[in-house]
Inverse folding.
């Protein structure tokens, strides 16, 4: 086992092609933003019923994954697992990049993104949204400092450990805040549940690690740096545990609701009668995003292959988008129950399942956020010593 | 910021440019076109509120005719919304809801608007304090603080709020609107502050139905307080403990 050496990645033709592709997505998102800003949200699929649409699915996925991407660094610095230590810098950088991408989508979908300064200077401390703004800004500062102490010369491990612990605690609070955006919505039967906060925390563990595994696999392949199959399989098994936890908390969420007669109709909508939402729940989230990846990484023989972990990671991400689509859009599609015991109708979609067809403008904005996050990560690896030259099993240890 | 001269369609109070500037930064302005400016609800709207009052509505569902839309038309005309006309993307400050009791089949109809809660969830969740409640209980949106995040629309149990999805024209000086912000019933605050009655109540009365009553819930001698004392009424989603200022009887 040799000393871990970190080196900037070189701008090879392959890397430049990838950067150009990401740039195209970012440009497309910029065009979409300008178009929506000019015409208003009339040109999107969102309406007065589905007020948060596909951009929010992307934004919340990225924000949740950001805090989860810090897992690897936390496991190294806080829990002292040696094999994860060489990857801690990438973990921190990816966390910052994903958060930046997610927040960009969130802010650029505002009705008045030009008033961001208002959001930054006027706080209603009773609003979990306002708290989230502080939590996001704090995350940038704390994880930035954590990254710095990891990279500074001759920094004592105790300092890194303290910074890592603060970052770990902060990310738990941050994701509690993200989950509580929904958990504290008393008006809507699909939300209003304390389990939303821990559910979002395990979602962040799972989605963030899946994104980390894919980014690490891709960049080591593009830069011809070795990545040990045992290290990948180890992260894959951890991903399997996280995916199982997501299924567990999802089961608790729905079983609790099913027990209460007042929530029977919203549960029937999501679990049985909701069309696209029911399909995305069972097929997208549970089977593709949960059961299959768990089976892949824990398979007695196939589980050790890097391909299993990589495929499992991709499936967990697909399941994560499905889950967030069901939570966000499905939760809004189900009509508000203002008059229990009555059939209702009005000119304002009372009593009907609200329709939503996302426009390509929303998709471009969301994909632009993903591209921005990846571009920042790539740029960070080009200018900073983030990525180790050798992550072979022999080199990272096994403790 | 350029502050063009005020040009009200109707002047609730006489105010020249100097008075306007003296009223402080709490009153923000929105330029519609050269020389046409709107006041956003802000400190000025709040300053005129009497903390001793709690404005409210009592709606007698028995008196509300199913085919009558007078309250909605009056609100639309008074406040200048409803011209966009894009189905689920158009604003509706007030709407008629038709109800059918699932158990008995009895049909009824009622107007729904912002319920002007004592504990409004929209105000709780608003990150920038754009959603606010005046001391007299009227819940408003300060259009110059609203960033268009729509969290209030997620939080409102009554579906009372609308997002402005496109440019709006022909605005009323007393009811500022703006693309990318959220709006809802103001209880015709511009009328109330000058001793008037909301347009919907006035229109309902004019039809002869008399299903809507407006008044001060804090004044035990007001017509609305006496009616609430004498007849049973309900608050919608009473389970949420929001104590809305709008009550319904004979539902």
């Amino acid at each position: 086992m040799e000393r871990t050496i970190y080196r900037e990645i070189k701008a090879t033709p392959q890397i430049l092609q990838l950067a150009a592709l990401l740039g195209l997505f970012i440009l497309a998102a910029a065009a979409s933003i300008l178009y929506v800003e000019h015409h208003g949200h009339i040109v999107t699929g969102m309406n007065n019923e589905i007020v948060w649409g596909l951009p929010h699915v992307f934004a919340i996925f990225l924000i949740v994954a950001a805090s989860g991407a810090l897992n690897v660094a936390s496991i190294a610095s806080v829990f002292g697992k040696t094999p994860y230590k060489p990857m801690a810098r990438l973990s921190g950088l990816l966390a910052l990049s994903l958060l930046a991408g997610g927040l960009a989508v969130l802010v650029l979908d505002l009705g008045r993104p030009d008033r961001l300064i208002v959001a930054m200077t006027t706080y209603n401390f009773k609003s979990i949204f306002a708290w989230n703004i502080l939590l996001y800004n704090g995350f940038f500062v704390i994880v930035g400092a954590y990254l710095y102490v990891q990279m500074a010369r001759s920094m004592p491990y105790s300092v890194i450990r303290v910074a890592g612990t603060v970052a770990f605690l902060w990310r738990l609070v941050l994701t509690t805040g993200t989950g509580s955006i929904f958990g504290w919505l008393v008006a809507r039967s699909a939300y209003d549940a304390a389990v939303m906060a821990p559910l979002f925390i395990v979602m962040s563990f799972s989605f963030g690690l899946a994104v980390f595994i894919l980014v690490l696999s891709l960049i080591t392949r593009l830069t011809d740096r070795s990545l040990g199959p045992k290290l990948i399989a180890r992260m894959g098994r951890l991903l399997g545990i996280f995916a199982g936890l997501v299924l567990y908390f999802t089961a608790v969420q729905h079983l609790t609701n099913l027990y209460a007669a007042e929530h029977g109709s919203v549960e029937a909508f999501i679990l049985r009668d909701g069309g696209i939402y029911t399909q995305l729940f069972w097929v997208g989230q549970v089977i593709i995003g949960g059961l299959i990846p768990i089976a892949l990484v824990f398979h007695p023989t196939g589980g050790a292959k890097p391909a299993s972990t990589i495929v499992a990671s991709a499936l967990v991400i697909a399941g994560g988008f499905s889950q967030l689509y069901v939570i966000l859009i499905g939760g809004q599609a189900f009509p508000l129950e203002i008059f229990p015991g009555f059939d209702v109708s009005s000119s304002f979609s009372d009593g009907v399942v609200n329709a939503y067809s996302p426009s390509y403008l929303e998709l471009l904005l969301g994909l632009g956020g993903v591209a921005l996050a990846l571009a920042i990560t790539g740029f960070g690896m080009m200018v900073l010593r983030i990525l180790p030259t050798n992550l072979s099993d022999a080199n990272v240890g096994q403790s | 910021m350029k502050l063009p001269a005020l040009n009200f369609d109707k002047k609730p109070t006489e105010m020249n440019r100097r008075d306007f500037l003296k009223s402080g930064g709490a009153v923000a302005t929105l330029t519609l076109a050269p020389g046409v400016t709107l006041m956003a609800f802000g400190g000025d709207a709040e300053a005129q509120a009497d903390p001793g009052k709690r404005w409210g509505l009592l709606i007698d569902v028995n008196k509300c005719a199913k085919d009558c839309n007078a309250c909605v038309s009056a609100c639309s005309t008074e406040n200048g919304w409803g011209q966009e006309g894009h189905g689920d993307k158009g604003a509706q400050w007030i709407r008629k809801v038709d109800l059918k009791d699932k158990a008995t089949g009895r049909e009824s109809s009622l107007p729904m608007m912002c319920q002007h809660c004592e504990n409004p969830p929209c105000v709780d969740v608003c990150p920038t304090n754009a959603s606010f409640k005046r001391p007299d209980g009227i819940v408003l949106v300060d259009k110059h603080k609203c960033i268009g995040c729509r969290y209030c629309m997620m939080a409102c149990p009554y579906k009372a709020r609308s997002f402005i999805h496109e440019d709006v024209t022909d605005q009323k000086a007393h009811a500022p609107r703006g693309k990318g912000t959220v709006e809802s019933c103001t209880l015709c605050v511009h009328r109330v502050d000058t001793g008037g009655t909301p347009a919907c109540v006035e229109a309902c009365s004019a039809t002869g139905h008399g299903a809507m009553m407006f008044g001060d819930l804090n004044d035990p001698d007001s017509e609305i307080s006496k009616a609430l004392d004498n007849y049973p009424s309900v608050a919608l989603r009473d389970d949420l403990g929001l104590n809305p200022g709008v009550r319904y009887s004979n539902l």
Q: What stands out?
A: The first strand of chain A starts at residue 6 and ends at 7.
